[in-house]
Amino acid sequence: MVPMLIGGSLNAIGYGIATLGPGIGVAMIFSAVINGTARQPEARPAMMTTAFIGFAVVEALALFGFALAFIVS
Fold first, then answer.
1. pLDDT-based confidence at residue 7 (cuts at 50, 70, 90)
2. CATH number of 11-72: 1.20.20.10, 3.90.79.10, 3.40.190.10, 1.10.10.10?
3. pTM to 2 decimals?
4. Burial 40-71 (b: 16+ CB within 10 A, else e)
5. 22, 49, 50, 60: most buried by Cβ count inside 10 Å?
6. Which carries the bigger pLDDT value, residue 19 or residue 54?
């Protein structure tokens, strides 16, 4: 009996697991904005600006990880 060969690399699995971090980060950012808007509606524009900057930073880190997954493999 021939053992089953598995091709590919573990980078795809590692990146798949690493996507949980940015997903949780984005959820935390926007849940804080929703909570803050419910508490103080007049501060919504300032909170949304900060939220979009935080969202961009979190997603940029996710894209760097995606690029590194291809560079390392």
1. low
2. 1.20.20.10
3. 0.73
4. eeeeeeebeeebeebbeebeeebeeeeeebee
5. 22
6. 54
